[in-house]
Amino acid sequence: MTILGSGQSHGACSLLHAAGTGYGSSMALDLPVAVRLLDRPSKRDLEDPDGLLDSVMKIWVSSGYDLPNGLEPEQLFWAVASKIPPKQGLKSSAAVSIAALRSLCDATGIELEVHRLVELCAQSQFDAGVSLTGSIDDAWACATKGWKLIDVNAESIESGVIMEGKGPESDDWFVTIVVRERRTKSPTLEDFQPFFNDFQQALSAIQEGDLLNAITWNGRAMSGVLEDFDGRRISNDAFVNGARSSGISGSGPAVVILSPSITPQTVNRLKRIFDNKQKKLTIIETKFLNSEGEDVDSD
Question: What angle do CA 285, 290, 293 make, to 5 degrees?
């Protein structure tokens, strides 16, 4: 078995779900993903129930890019190592797509700019049926560090970047993620309409540079969209016990909780509260991935 190419990416959490207002934003998290392109099947079982990697290969070929060594798609295989729990709203699909595209680039010696990777990633997710909007903001966050505010209706991927920044300082915040049982159904675009004002509050918070408040407003809106009262309760419990921000990420069900690094006792308290095996909760501790430079308004 030969490793033909390899690619990396990472997970992210939502600042603003793109289906709420037509603007989306996600913040990079230290949840690494690695994808390898092989000439023979990996010994490890590949979990890809949505056929996402097949879609990545399909979009790559249909976009006119070559495959390594003159091989056909059916002669190529994937191996994935991911720290992102799947189907939790932590951008696992976008991260795997970006890493897979980078492995194809590595295998063929093709260099693609990040905005082109994001475009191919969005097309792959649409093709696999794992995204309502193409998750362009998710793809940006999984391919780069920091955060970006994206207009999903922009004429191009590049022009769709409205604002960007490094995000809350990694050393200043603990990121605690409550991973829950996978959702049984996904929301429709119509489910978002009654909560437009809440999503607008999250958008305004991002524009004002208050990303922690954006996470909270977005999470509240998503609990309404999903009718996820347990998720709202988890967020409320987090606030009562010292968190500064908390909310459902993506289309859930994971809840992201932020607490100051100067109060490690807050995280310990939260872990004791949510370490309830009867509710099948899992706790993940991670950090933000900050980009370089200051926040920028692309206009």
Answer: 165
